[in-house]
Design a protein that fits this description.
By secondary structure, the chain is mainly alpha-helical. The protein folds into two domains: about 90 residues, no CATH class; about 120 residues. About 60% of the residues lie in helices and about 0% in strands. The radius of gyration is 20 Å and the shape is globular. The N terminus is likely disordered.
């Protein structure tokens, strides 16, 4: 799809097919996440807090930028330039792209580049598809297995948040620094995320891989203090520390940090 949205020749090749591709990917993601018939077992006791759906009230698309970087926000927003006569809310499109998990950051970038060459009907179709994905996942969340699909879905949103930050900031290290700062500093825009153990496991894993040991330890401690499935929390962190792919010292350090963070946690 990224190649289809190249636009390097000044004209999109088969624009309708591009939009159909977006829709196919979105439908495929929602179908995979759809809840399966319940399995026997005391699943209720392991559920994540139900009072805060982490897919609702997501931060504004510009969250990776600093409060003092209004000029950068304006510059990035100006990339959405619909053709004359096409009615479009740029903020609405950017918010939907920011939190879409079926498109890569590069594909989102291509859509922005192509915005000036899409017709009204094509924009309408694109927005409808992106909105459908968001509605579906928000509605699915309460019914998802708290130790399975729900953790997978959280992981997808976390990864795409980091990818979106990279797209806006242009640097992987800055993207991680910004996301970790929002979470560790209790940015109120991410309040629904900071209450969930899996988010902290993912963040700790990334921070340790980046050599930010103290922050990784803090993230693990924050995660251990939250409610939710402990098994999924530990597995998420350890999966990223596969001894076959990670330096032995980092693996040992990660194991030790996890044991210290969990302590007597039930």
């Amino acid at each position: 799809m990224a190649q289809e949205l190249d636009g390097s020749g000044g004209k999109l090749e088969d624009q309708d097919e591009i939009l159909r591709s977006v829709r196919r990917k979105t439908l495929r993601f929602t179908q995979v996440a759809a809840p399966r018939p319940p399995t026997p077992g005391p699943e209720k006791a392991a559920e994540l807090p139900v009072q805060a759906n982490p897919l609702a009230d997501l931060p504004h698309w510009s969250w990776p930028f600093d409060a003092a970087e209004a000029d950068r926000v304006e510059t990035f927003a100006s990339r959405v330039q619909p053709a004359e006569g096409v009615e479009l809310d740029p903020e609405g499109l950017l918010n939907l792209l920011a939190w879409n998990i079926s498109l890569t950051a590069d594909e989102k970038d291509r859509i922005l580049e192509a915005s000036g060459r899409l017709s009204q009907s094509q924009f309408d179709q694109l927005l409808e598809t992106l909105e459908e994905e968001r509605r579906n996942f928000m509605a699915l969340w309460p019914a998802l297995n708290p130790e399975g699909t729900r953790i997978d879905l959280l992981g997808a949103y976390y990864r795409h948040a980091r990818e979106w930050a990279r797209l806006l900031l242009g640097n992987e290290d800055q993207a991680l620094a910004r996301l970790s700062g929002c979470l560790l500093d209790d940015d109120p825009r991410f309040a629904r995320w900071t209450a969930l153990r899996p988010i902290w496991a993912l963040l700790a894993r990334d921070l340790l891989a980046a050599g930010r040991t103290d922050q990784a330890r803090t993230a693990l401690e924050r995660g251990a203090a939250q409610q939710g499935p402990l098994r999924g929390f530990a597995d998420l962190f350890l999966d990223g520390l596969d001894p076959q792919k990670t330096q032995e010292e980092t693996w040992r350090q990660g194991m030790q940090m996890l044991q210290q963070a969990l302590g007597d946690t039930p």
